[in-house]
Design a protein that fits this description.
The protein is mainly β and 695 residues long. The protein has four helices and 50 strands. The chain starts with 7 loop residues before the first helix and ends in a 5-residue tail after the last strand.
C-alpha cells in the first residue's frame, strides 16, 4: 500500500529551489502536476447578475439636465455643460494612476466563470476576450488568471505554474514571478487550496462598446500556516474602448512571516520594463495592508475622442464642453462624442439638452387643420397674459398684424414680441377639396349589358383617393377601387376620401318593368285556317317563348308564330308570348275562338225561327277574312232585290228590306268584299234557302 502525502506550496518550492521537501508519492511529480492542472482548469459557472452593468471606465456622455429660464430675467443666454469620459491612446505607454472612490461596480463573488482549483500557485487556461483591449502598444485578445492575484495578456498555455516569491519592485522581468504577469491586483502569495468557500472567477459583462472583463478574488486565504486565516478580497476591471484598468481592494491583509509580507499593485508591459504603480503600493513599500481602496490606471497618451455641440439643425456650434447658448424660445442641443479605439473601431455617443426661455404670456394660433372645400381661413395670434397692444407680430408671410387670412396649403408661424420676450407658435394648414364624383342618375335595367359604376373623382388622381362601396347600406369590404361591377339591383353608394375630405354619391338601380309586347286583339278563326301571330315590340336583342293555353311550344323562338286550330278544339284557345331582355320579361296573350260557322263556308240555308240556331246568314268569318263586307244583296228567284245591307256581318234573318218575313224558298246573294279573299276573290255569289218550318 502506497501513501501519497503532498503540500502543493512545497512542490512549487522544490521547482524553484530544486529541493524536494515533505514529499513521497509513488506516481511521481509529473502526475501530481497534471492532477492539479485538471482541478485548476475545472470551471464552475454562475448566472450573470447584470449583463448591462457599467463602471467608471465606461464610455458615456451627459448633456446635463434640461434648462428652463425666465425670459424676463437675465441676458437670454445660458451656459450648457457636457460631461463625458475622456479617452487616450495607450500605444505611447503613458498611463495615469488615480485614486478613486471605493465603489466596486461589480460583486466580488458569483461571477459566471468560477475558477476554484483548490490548488496553489497555478495559471488558468488561456481565455479569449470578446473585445479588443488596448494595453500599452498591444491589442490584447487573450488572457490568463494566476491564483496569486495576477493577470497576464502575454499568455503561455504551456506554463501552468504561477510564481509567488519576489522581492523586486515593478517593473521587473528578471524574476519570473513578476515577469510572467501584466496586472497585479495586488500580486501576493495567496492559497485557494486551503479553503472551500473562496472564489476566483471572471465574467464579461455589458454590451458593445461598454463591455468589461471582471476578474475577482473572493476571500482567498493568505499563505501559509496561521496566515491562512487572513482572507484577501480584490477585483480588477478591464474596460472596452476606454482601455481603463480599475483595481478594487476590499480586504488586503499582510502576512509578514511569509515572503516578508511582500505585495505589489499596478500594471507593466510585456517586456517588463515599463510599469505604473500607485504610490506606496510597490514591493519596496511592503509590508502594506489596506481595506476599501480603489485605483484607476488609465491610458494618458494622445486623446482618442473628439467632442462637439450640435444645434437642432445639425450645425456644430462648439467643441468645448461648456458653451453659451442664446435660443429663441426653446432649442435642443446635442452633445456628441466620437471615440476611436486602437483597432480602428469608432463609436459616436450623443445626449440632448433642451434650453427653454419661458415667457409670462403665451401665443396660440390654433391646432393643425386639414380643411375641405374652404377657400380661406383667418388666423389670429391669441395672447394670454399679455395685451396685444403691447405686442408686435411677425408672421412667416411677412405680415405684421395680429390676424391674417390665408388660402394656401402651408406651414404658418408667428413671432410675437412683448418687451423683448419672444414667443412663437406655428400651424400646419392643408386646403383640400372634397372629391367631385357622379354615379349618374337612377335607372332601371335588365342587365342585358355589363353595368360598371365609376366613382373616379374629376378633381383628383383616382389612385390617390380611397373608396368605400355599399349596397343597400351594407359595406362591400372587398370593393375598394374606383369602379364597381353591378350584378344585382339595389341602392349603391360610394364614399370617396382624400385625406380627411370625403364625398358620397348614391344611385338606385331597379329592374325594368316596362317591357311591352303586343299580339293584338282577340279574334276568331276558321278550323285548320293557317294564321300568323306577330309579337310586336320595340325592344331589341330579345328572345321569344310561345305558349298555348299555358304550355310551352317547344322550338317556337321566333317573333312570329304560324298556327291553325284543330276543328275538334274546345272553347277558347289562348296563345301567349314571353319576351326576355337580360333579366327582364314582358308578356302578352290573345284569345282565339272558332267561328260559329264551323267550316267557315257561306251557308246554303237558314231557318230563322228564333231558336238561336242558324237563324241568320252569318258571314262573320268572311267579313273578318276580307277586311269587311262592303255590301250584301239578296234577290228572289225573279231577280228582284229583296234585301241589301252595307258593312254586313250577320243581320239578315230572312226579312225583306222593309223588315217583313220572306216566304220559304230559294234566294240568291251577291257579296261585295272590301278586300280580295283567297277563296271568293273580290265578290261572292250563290244561293241560300229560307226554311221557315225548321225547328
Amino acid at each position: 500500500m502506497h501513501n501519497c502525502i503532498f503540500y502543493p506550496k512545497l512542490i512549487i518550492l522544490t521547482k524553484i529551489m530544486n529541493t524536494l521537501l515533505s514529499f513521497h508519492c509513488p506516481f511521481g511529480i509529473n502526475k501530481i502536476r497534471t492532477f492539479f492542472s485538471i482541478i485548476f482548469l475545472s470551471f464552475f459557472f454562475f448566472s450573470s447578475y447584470n449583463s448591462n452593468a457599467q463602471g467608471p471606465g465606461s464610455l458615456f456622455v451627459d448633456a446635463g439636465p434640461d434648462i428652463i429660464e425666465d425670459c424676463g430675467t437675465g441676458s437670454g443666454c445660458v451656459d450648457i455643460t457636457a460631461t463625458f469620459l475622456e479617452t487616450f491612446e495607450s500605444a505611447s505607454s503613458n498611463y495615469s494612476v488615480t485614486s478613486i472612490d471605493y465603489i466596486p461596480p461589480f460583486p466580488f463573488n458569483g461571477l459566471a466563470n468560477s475558477l476554484n482549483p483548490d490548488i496553489d500557485d497555478a495559471w488558468s487556461i488561456v481565455e479569449s476576450l470578446p473585445f479588443d483591449f488596448c494595453f500599452f502598444e498591444n491589442i490584447e485578445t487573450q488572457f490568463q488568471i494566476g491564483s496569486n492575484g495576477v493577470i497576464r495578456f502575454d499568455v503561455d498555455p504551456g506554463d501552468t505554474s504561477n510564481g509567488w516569491q519576489f522581492t523586486e519592485d515593478l517593473p521587473n522581468n528578471s524574476n519570473p514571478t513578476l515577469g510572467e504577469a501584466n496586472v497585479f491586483t495586488p500580486g501576493h502569495d495567496i492559497d485557494p487550496s486551503v479553503s472551500t468557500t473562496e472564489e476566483i472567477g471572471y465574467e464579461v459583462l455589458g454590451e458593445f462598446p461598454n463591455r468589461v472583463l471582471v476578474v475577482a478574488y473572493y476571500e482567498v486565504p493568505l499563505f501559509f500556516g496561521s496566515c491562512n486565516a487572513l482572507l484577501a478580497t480584490q477585483m480588477v476591471v478591464f474596460y472596452e474602448f476606454s482601455n481603463v484598468v480599475e483595481i478594487y481592494m476590499q480586504d488586503k491583509p499582510v502576512c509578514p512571516t511569509w515572503n516578508d509580507g511582500n505585495a505589489t499593485l499596478g500594471i507593466q508591459n510585456n517586456d517588463g520594463d515599463i510599469a505604473f504603480v500607485p504610490p506606496g503600493r510597490n514591493t519596496s513599500d511592503s509590508p502594506w495592508q489596506t481595506n476599501d481602496e480603489a485605483w484607476q490606471i488609465s491610458p494618458s497618451g494622445a486623446p482618442t475622442y473628439s467632442f462637439e455641440w450640435v444645434d437642432s439643425g445639425g450645425i456644430v456650434i462648439g467643441t468645448n464642453p461648456t458653451i453659451e447658448v442664446c435660443p429663441d424660445g426653446s432649442e435642443t442641443y446635442t452633445a456628441r462624442v466620437t471615440y476611436t479605439n486602437c483597432n480602428g473601431d469608432i463609436v459616436v455617443l450623443t445626449d440632448d439638452v433642451t434650453v427653454t426661455f419661458t415667457n409670462s404670456y403665451t401665443v396660440d394660433i390654433g391646432e393643425n387643420q386639414e380643411l375641405c372645400d374652404v377657400k380661406n381661413l383667418e388666423l389670429t395670434a391669441e395672447l394670454t397674459g399679455a395685451d396685444p397692444a403691447d405686442a408686435t407680430f411677425l408672421w412667416s408671410t411677412g405680415e405684421t398684424t395680429q390676424s391674417i387670412t390665408v388660402s394656401q396649403t402651408n406651414d404658418y408661424s408667428v413671432e410675437v414680441n412683448v418687451d423683448d420676450c419672444i414667443e412663437t407658435d406655428s400651424i400646419s394648414l392643408v386646403f383640400n377639396e372634397n372629391p367631385i364624383i357622379d354615379l349618374g342618375a337612377d335607372f332601371a335595367t335588365c342587365f342585358e349589358e355589363v353595368i360598371i359604376l365609376d366613382a373616379s373623382p374629376s378633381n383628383y388622381d383616382p389612385t390617390e383617393v380611397t373608396y368605400e362601396w355599399s349596397l343597400n347600406g351594407v359595406i362591400l369590404p372587398s370593393e375598394t377601387t374606383s369602379t364597381l361591377v353591378v350584378i344585382e339591383v339595389g341602392i349603391y353608394s360610394v364614399l370617396v376620401t382624400f385625406e380627411n375630405c370625403s364625398s358620397e354619391d348614391t344611385i338606385n338601380i331597379t329592374p325594368r318593368d316596362d317591357l311591352e309586347v303586343s299580339l293584338g286583339d282577340d279574334f276568331k278563326s276558321c278550323p285548320q285556317e293557317v294564321r300568323i301571330l306577330t309579337a310586336a315590340t320595340s325592344e331589341t336583342d330579345i328572345t321569344f317563348q310561345w305558349f298555348l293555353n299555358g304550355d310551352l311550344l317547344e322550338g317556337e323562338t321566333e317573333q312570329t308564330l304560324e298556327f291553325s286550330i284543330d276543328p275538334e278544339a274546345m272553347g277558347t284557345q289562348t296563345y301567349s308570348v314571353v319576351i326576355t331582355v337580360g333579366d327582364c320579361t314582358g308578356e302578352d296573350s290573345v284569345d282565339i275562338q272558332l267561328y260559329d260557322i264551323g267550316n267557315c263556308v257561306i251557308s246554303q240555308g237558314i231557318s230563322p225561327n228564333g231558336d238561336g240556331f242558324n237563324d241568320s246568314l252569318d258571314l262573320e268569318f268572311l267579313s273578318d277574312r276580307a277586311g269587311g263586307i262592303n255590301q250584301l244583296q239578296i234577290y228572289n228567284r225573279y231577280g228582284t232585290l229583296v234585301f241589301e245591307a252595307i258593312n254586313y256581318t250577320n243581320e239578315w234573318q230572312g226579312q225583306d228590306k222593309n223588315g217583313n218575313e220572306l216566304p220559304t224558298g230559294t234566294y240568291f246573294y251577291v257579296i261585295d268584299l272590301m278586300e280580295e279573299d283567297p277563296v271568293f276573290g273580290q265578290q261572292a255569289t250563290g244561293w241560300v234557302y229560307i226554311n221557315k218550318e225548321a225547328n
